[in-house]
Design a protein that fits this description.
Number of helices: 12
Family: Belongs to the TonB-dependent receptor family.
Protein name: TonB-dependent receptor
Distance between the termini: 43 Å
Radius of gyration: 30 Å
Structural class: alpha+beta
Keywords: Cell outer membrane, Membrane, Receptor, Signal, TonB box, TPR repeat, Transmembrane, Transmembrane beta strand, Transport
Number of domains: 2
CATH topology of the largest domain: Maltoporin, Chain A
GO molecular function, one term: siderophore uptake transmembrane transporter activity
CATH architecture of the largest domain: Beta Barrel
Shape: globular
Membrane topology: Multi-pass membrane protein
Length: 851
């Protein structure tokens, strides 16, 4: 390292360490001040306690903090300050506005009464130590009291009306002392989208809605959960959603291109990863025709996300098929909760250009969020150089990795506290890469994605309906000259309707019951299928009961049944998904959980209906026939999990530990290539000779995945935030030779993540994180080197790698303009799959303006 480099790094470190008024992780730091303030207020140290609450609110505004400030002023007898704080709280349009307004009315009446009874200026009510009686009140005082009596009568009537409105509303769960009640309903996909993750009973408490389809503390969640906040996103330096997920314990993120990634949880990752359900505000982004989440095709950007909730473990008991290993729910900002306008621009390496605009607004009971964005970025590397005599490039731009333009509009109209209607929709025109299975390699997809969604909330009943659309062309980016082209057209439409009923009651303890029904129609036209159009109708019903037997113990019982048109040997059949969880909270801030659950993944259209002759690379006129199988069984998982989640607000500390065992059977994959009889060895449709056939089938092997995960969030001192996680897993099978066990060798044994953030209240932000993954061996189908017409399973070794991202941000004009410098993939060149791009480092600059 040269001396100038040392000086530059030393100067940057000194700048960070000398910056004043530093903040660590905002939520943890604010929560620490809030808890300290509440403890001081309980000890009647009102001034010191209120100062702590004000500091918490300054770090991260939260309406409930204002409420507690108002209560503290009221208990201290300082009515003027209490009224001011209550009015600031009401300005946030809280759900308990009617009851708080009634309280404000009482305080104003008390304040007016005190003013009316006070002696006129310049008079002396009596002489201290004198035995003389007080003089009678003057006539003006009697008149004032009569006026006050009339005023009080009118105020009491107003208060009664306000309280009657509150009483007629749907009953709310009991909130902790000094904290206003809030709606506890499912907001994962409700009419209001979702409120901030902190809008719960306790300010700055981490809340999740995905684990039980209702808002609850992460301590109460029956699954291992990880929450990535908007603040985490902004400070991370990540430019894509999959990059953010590397910080999740147990998450296996495999980037094959700048717009192509595969994400799994607790093993079993692959090309076309299909065992994790990805939702955006409760609407699925799983592409049913092929079994893939097209991350580059999501209709939202990082700047629109409020938080990401990751459920690590089976979720089929609530979400049905494809939530086999977990659920990733991307929750966007609720309409009307952000800035009126926000412009962002980014440019950097790889010819990267990105611009976005997000706007929030409100007109009476109507709130909206509108957004538009454009992005493009070149590949990290190319598969083939230009000008080769044996391969032809199909795309016009051989370097383009991803490009897209999108627009969204989300609205919600609120009739009352628990009655609202939401409508949202968006469109995304994009080009990206995908990596299919088998002999197929890098595909380019030029597509149009669109969606429309409606939500209705009627107290305990919630209705949701959505439509997902995808159409376009897809095919290999490079094709051998002289071979038949595999370019094809795709058109997919999914129509979904759902009804959810939630109710709480008491019977030998407290119960919270959720009951739901769902129907889904899938229509797919895909050139690789054995027909122009395929249509399937799916139905499901589920029930969940959260039963608090005694105060520290809760049982969560869930059961779901799904109807699939092919599950019973090609005929309609059902899949059942029960789950039983116990959550034990023996003391504040600690929760121990145990669960046993099952989950499943249903066959995709590709696996059920495919008929595709795949050309053998390097041999013109020769193909391998790939066919679907309508008698496939669903992939099944049986899971056991033990966990411990804890928090220490005084130390600014959160942690989570999980131990699990997953038993997986009936995995769906391609069979070995089987030679065909001479009479079946010619395919007239493709005009090629068929060397054999491979069909989708259920494997006989049973796989067992065992692992342990641990994560910690720490803000030990002002100015420092630390996040760290570690995951160990081992996948085995009952196969006699584990050398050919793909899921065993493809699962990384260890994954480590560490991140540090440094924030100052004035101008400067700094963040750096690193994710380490151990070496793996990928078993893939490839033509044999000695005989290209023979397809073998070959082992491909992949060395360990480290992904490093960093960001430095600066507020040029406070609350108006900020700039940032971000480094992506700073750990050096590497590949995350044998067929993927060689990933290289890139640096980006961003500008954000919020007029």
């Amino acid at each position: 390292m040269t001396i100038p480099t040392v000086f530059r790094r030393g100067a940057l470190l000194a700048l960070c360490l000398c910056a004043t008024e530093a903040l660590a992780d905002a939520r943890l730091e604010a929560r620490r001040h809030f808890r300290n303030g509440m403890n001081l207020i309980e000890q009647k140290q009102f001034d010191e306690g209120i100062a702590e609450l004000e500091e918490a609110y300054k770090i991260k505004p939260h309406p409930s903090v204002l409420y507690n400030i108002a209560r503290a002023y009221q208990d201290a007898g300082r009515l003027a300050e209490a009224l001011d704080a209550f009015k600031r709280y009401l300005a946030s349009n809280p759900p308990d506005a009617a009851s708080v307004q009634a309280q404000v009315t009482r305080l104003e009446a008390t304040q007016q009464a005190a003013s009316a009874e006070a002696p006129p200026p310049g008079t002396t009510p009596g002489t201290p130590g004198s035995n003389l009686p007080m003089p009678p009140p003057p006539p003006t005082s009697i008149q004032a009291q009569q006026q006050l009596a009339t005023l009080m009568e009118r105020l009491e009537k107003a208060v009664n009306r306000a309280e009657s409105l509150t009483a007629n509303a749907a009953p709310q769960p009991q909130a902790p002392a000094n904290t206003p009640a809030s709606n506890d309903a499912d907001t994962s996909g409700g009419a209001q989208g979702d409120t901030s993750g902190d809008q719960g009973f306790v300010p700055y408490e981490e809340r999740v809605v995905t684990a039980s389809r209702r808002a609850q503390s992460s301590l109460e969640a029956p699954n291992a959960t990880t929450v990535i906040t908007s603040e985490d996103i902004r400070l991370s330096g990540a430019t894509t959603l999959p990059e953010l997920l590397r910080r999740v314990p147990g998450a296996d993120v495999m980037a094959l291109g700048v717009g192509s990634a595969n994400v799994s949880l607790r093993g079993f990752n692959q090309r076309l990863s299909n065992k994790v359900l990805v939702l955006v505000d409760g609407r699925t982004e799983y592409q049913d025709f092929i079994g893939l989440t097209v991350w580059a095709g999501l209709p939202i950007g990082l700047e629109e996300i409020d938080r990401i909730e990751v459920i690590r473990g089976p979720g089929s008991a609530l979400y049905g098929a494809n939530a086999m290993l977990g659920v990733i729910n991307i929750i966007t900002q609720a309409p009307g909760t952000g800035r009126r306008a926000r412009f962002s621009a980014m440019a950097g390496g790889g010819n990267t250009v990105q611009g976005s605009f997000v706007s929030h607004g409100q007109n009476g009971a109507l709130r909206y969020r509108a957004s538009a964005a454009y992005r493009q970025e070149d590949k990290w590397s190319r598969d083939y150089a230009s000008g080769r005599p044996d391969f032809a490039l199909r795309d016009e731009d051989p370097d383009l990795g991803t490009r897209g333009a999108r627009g969204n509009l989300s609205t919600v109209y609120t009739f009352s506290e628990d009655r609202s209607v939401g409508l949202s929709g968006g469109v995304h025109r994009y080009n990206t890469e995908i990596y299919p299975l088998g002999l197929l390699r890098n595909y380019s997809m030029d597509a149009l994605g669109a969606y429309a969604k409606g939500d209705v909330e009627l107290g305990a009943v919630k209705l949701k309906a959505f439509w997902n659309h995808l159409s376009g062309t897809a095919g290999p980016q490079y094709e051998a000259i002289g071979q038949r082209s595999l370019v094809t057209n795709i058109a997919s439409n999914v129509f979904n309707g759902e009804a959810l009923y939630a109710r709480g009651f008491e019977l030998a303890g407290e119960h919270q019951v959720n009951i739901g029904v769902e129907g889904r129609l899938k229509r797919v036209a895909f050139g690789y299928l054995d027909g122009n159009l395929r249509e399937e109708f799916h139905a499901a019903a589920f029930i969940q009961d959260e039963w608090r037997i005694v105060q520290p113990l809760r049982l969560v019982v869930s059961y779901r049944v799904d109807r699939h048109p092919l599950l019973d040997k090609g005929q309609p059949g059902i899949a059942q998904s029960p789950r039983l969880s116990a959550v034990f909270q023996p003391m504040e801030g600690h929760a121990f959980r145990a669960s046993v659950a099952t989950a499943f993944r249903e066959p995709t259209f590709l696996e059920s209906y495919t008929r595709l002759p795949v050309p053998v690379p390097g041999v013109n006129g020769v193909s391998v026939l790939t066919t679907g199988n309508r008698e496939l069984r669903p992939e099944r998982l049986n899971a056991l999990e033990l966990g411990w989640r804890g928090e220490s607000p005084r130390l600014g500390l959160d942690w989570d530990v999980a131990l699990y065992q997953n038993t997986v059977k009936d995995l769906i994959g391609l069979s070995p290539v089987q030679r065909l009889p001479a009479g079946e060895s010619y395919d007239s449709g493709s005009g090629s000779y068929l060397v054999g056939r491979s069909l989708f089938t259920n494997e006989n092997a049973i796989y067992t995945a065992r692992g342990v995960e641990a994560g910690i969030n720490l803000s030990p001192i002002d100015g420092l935030g630390i996040k760290a996680s570690a995951a160990y897993q081992h996948v085995s099978s009952d196969l006699p030779e584990e050398g050919q066990c793909g899921p065993c060798s493809q699962a990384p044994g260890f994954r480590l993540f560490g991140g540090i953030t440094y924030r100052t209240r004035k101008d400067l932000e700094f963040g750096v994180d690193a994710a380490f993954t151990t070496a793996t061996t990928w078993v893939e189908r490839e033509p044999a080197a000695t005989d290209p017409t023979r397809v073998d399973l070959l082992a491909n070794n992949l060395p360990a790698y480290t992904v490093v991202n960093a960001r430095v941000g600066y507020d040029v004009v406070k609350d108006f303009a900020s700039v940032a410098l971000m480094g992506s993939q700073l750990g050096g060149g590497h590949s995350e799959h044998p067929f993927g791009n060689r990933i290289e480092r890139r640096v980006f600059a961003t500008l954000t303006v919020t007029p």
